[in-house]
Fold this sequence. Notes:
By secondary structure, this protein is of the alpha/beta class. The chain contains twelve helices and eight strands.
Amino acid sequence: MVQINRGGNVPPPPPARRVPLIAGNWKMNLTVDESLALIDEMLEDLDAYEEVETVICPPFIALFPAMELVEDSGIKLGAQNMFYKDSGAYTGEISPLMLREVCDYVILGHSERRLYFNENDEDINLKVKAALKDDLTPIIAVGENLAQREDNLTAEIISNQVEIALNDVNAYDASSVVIAYEPLWAIGTGQAASAETANEVCKFIRQTIVRLYDQSVADRVRIQYGGSVNPANISDFMCESDIDGALVGGASLKAADFVKIVARTQECIPRKKK
Ligand code: PEP
């Protein structure tokens, strides 16, 4: 049974506005040399957009050398996955304790992890708690597939995924997580959700956080949209009231596109709908 944990220290008052967060998920692409070259190509340009928090999630082995590269910039690093134990006989896995030496964020529950590696909501909850314990900020990916959307199951699927991912997470920790709404039918397909549809679900996720915790926690949680985001459509998403950033796949592998996505996100800050 899901346990709501409303304990923990009271989170600080919500900020006047949530800082937009753009994260590039490079997936299983690029060698270490290629990764460093791509970071190098966009670093200076990205650093000009100080009002946007920008995170790059390269393959694990590029994280360590990338750390040196981004050291004096505002760019942060994230991992694409992790196991929930700190150490032990888990061949091939990587732990939060190892990751926190090299990055600030970790993507958990991406649909490709759920689909190809059989991760379920309970596994993701264990990972979320382990990440928080070791001071990593989880970017928790949730989303429905096309059949579920067509059967009007989106709200049920999303609220279950959010609720189980946050099982036994206290209010203080919950207020620091990032949730990425990534409808499966929009990932890598070139068929992004409309900004209205994405905002509707992001708003529903925020209401779910209010139900699980309270308004002040919900006001702090950043909710991203992900699925075929590109320089041409990012502004539509970023002007919506409840979309606080984007998780970007394909377009994050092209320096010019990723820089434009970050630039347009910053431009949208004064135009944000209430
Ligand atoms: C993703 O995989 O998280 C993603 C959003 O991919 P894309 O931007 O390529 O649709």
